[in-house]
Amino acid sequence: MTIQTAFTHIVTSLEPIQGQREAANIAHIVMEYVTGMSKMDRIVYKERELTTEQTSQLTAAVKALLAHEPVQYVIGSSWFYGMELLVNPHVLIPRPETEELVEWIVQDIRTAQLSQPQILDIGTGSGAIPLAIKKELPQAHVQAVDVSKGALQTAKDNAVKQQLDVTFELVDILNKTAWTHLPMFDIIVSNPPYICQRESADMQEQVVSYEPSLALFVPDDDALLFYREIGWMGKEKLKNGGALYFEINEAFGTETAALLEGMGYLEVEIKKDLFGKDRMVKGVWK
Ligand code: SAM
Ligand code: GLN
What we know:
Methylates the class 1 translation termination release factors RF1/PrfA and RF2/PrfB on the glutamine residue of the universally conserved GGQ motif. By secondary structure, this protein is of the alpha/beta class.
């Protein structure tokens, strides 16, 4: 099989389930992964034959993709904030909306001219949030926690790969005794699980069947559980003037904001994502 026929093979295989445009996007990603060649080189060398090893890699990839496995898990990486991060089924594939949350925090820190902010990310998954913050603000002290050992290992591997100094720790944030030892922070950020089981019927198969349930679904269908618990934690662990930043379920913007206001947070603000949906909430602790 040549590079050109391999590309066409991926597109025709995936077209029925992904549509032409997405099938072509995925085919480019898979071809880069299999050949290690840039798009330009793949055009120049389109008649070059794949090796036996490359052909079997491609066959395995197409099989996984036809079973709706996300292409990021198939190739083992995903882009976030200009970094190529390792991903696997222990971690959520970082989303573009979450880049907007990082952007908000980075802007606020720059505006406030905080020189060495102490930052905590709760439920870090691949480490996307703390690594992006540390990359933008090298002088920040960044810590991150997760309850999943597999996620923490992936996050640590990503920190090594990106050569960024972030501290990772296994902590169940729903268990107070597990976090009392943590220091005080200027900023606590979290993109916690926020989907209720009943919403799973409306979700894409590639998300529900492959991404970790621990990352997606909130226990007991209690949509605000993590916001309430982290809100309480913030009251003890945020410095005066410190802030809490959350990614939220688009259906609960008003409720999450009201919850934080009820707990005494000030300057509570909801922000929409690029798709126009309520996606982030901030509250200041004074
Ligand atoms: N921060 C990553 C991102 O934005 O791509 C991952 C977010 S994912 C929606 C939620 C994360 O919270 C998962 O990595 C999951 O393992 C973690 N998590 C779930 N329950 C937790 C708990 N009780 N304590 C700490 N982390 C938890
Ligand atoms: N935004 C993700 C999705 O729609 C879920 C992230 C989360 O639960 N925090 O699949």
